[in-house]
Design brief:
The protein is about 25% helix and about 10% strand. With about 220 residues, the chain is α+β, with helices and mostly antiparallel strands. The chain has three domains: about 110 residues, Ubiquitin-like (UB roll); about 70 residues, Alpha-Beta Plaits (2-Layer Sandwich), CATH 3.30.70; about 25 residues, no CATH class. The strands form two sheets. It has a five-stranded mixed β-sheet with strand order 2-1-5-3-4, sandwiched between helices. The protein has a two-stranded antiparallel ribbon with strand order 6-7. Helix 2 runs antiparallel to helix 3.
């Protein structure tokens, strides 16, 4: 077991545990956007920053990728951490302001304005869709392309990949996907992006009424 202090509280966790996992285990909340249980840590959004160390040597690190160390001192909500998080939230708002997920995070952290140029992008490059496609769906149909300002995400040659099964997992985990559903422009008001394959039990030729009243749907589970 590794012993450390989080917000002044002496704790012990197993070796290999990340700071984020340790803090959450002890009920200390740390906001995240690109992290999801069951997927490899990526550290893209930087919302989970915490301060480690003391004095002049103290520094900010992403808690989802930083493993615990013996004697480590961690602060999850210091003035420096909260200030950094607010700036990160403002940058996320400048990139994708119409995402409900990002708007909710901004509200939780009392961010009422953002001071950066509005970009109105539809992707924050968190990598959730890439990881769930590769690690959970075992497909790898999408990935990152380019570097720096040219970095983007999609299928090779912008064509649907042969290994894509239209499972919809990428849209399910995407925190910015909701941006496509909140446009004020008539031609973009309905994107249809969340319309996945119809459930197998809803077929007009067989049933007059919807049968999906169970949760989870038995027919969907055995399909």
């Amino acid at each position: 077991m590794v012993k450390l202090k989080i917000n002044g509280l002496p704790v012990s966790v197993e070796k290999g545990t990340t700071i984020l996992e340790a803090a959450r285990f002890y009920g200390l909340p740390i906001p995240t956007l690109c992290h999801k249980e069951g997927l490899s840590p990526y550290g893209a959004c930087r919302l989970c920053v915490v301060e480690i160390g003391e004095g002049p040597g103290a520094r900010l690190v992403s808690s989802c990728t930083y493993p615990v160390e013996e004697g480590l001192i961690v602060r999850t909500a210091s003035e420096r951490v909260l200030s950094a998080r607010r700036i990160i939230i403002e940058l996320l708002l400048a990139t994708c302001a119409q995402s409900k997920t990002i708007q909710d995070i901004a509200s939780q952290h009392n961010v009422r304005r953002q001071r950066f140029r509005q970009e109105h992008e539809d992707c924050i490059l968190c990598g959730l869709c890439v990881r769930i496609c590769k690690e959970q769906m075992m497909a790898g149909a999408i990935g990152f392309r380019g570097r720096g300002e040219e970095r983007s995400l999609g299928a090779p040659f912008d064509a649907r990949s042969d290994v894509c099964r239209l499972c919809g997992a990428c849209m399910q985990v995407c925190p910015a996907c909701q941006a496509r559903c909140t446009f004020n422009e008539p031609d973009k008001a309905i994107c249809g992006g969340c319309a996945n394959l119809p459930p197998p039990c809803i077929e007009k030729d067989q049933f007059n009424d919807m049968m999906c009243y169970m949760s989870p749907c038995v027919a969907c589970e055995i399909k």
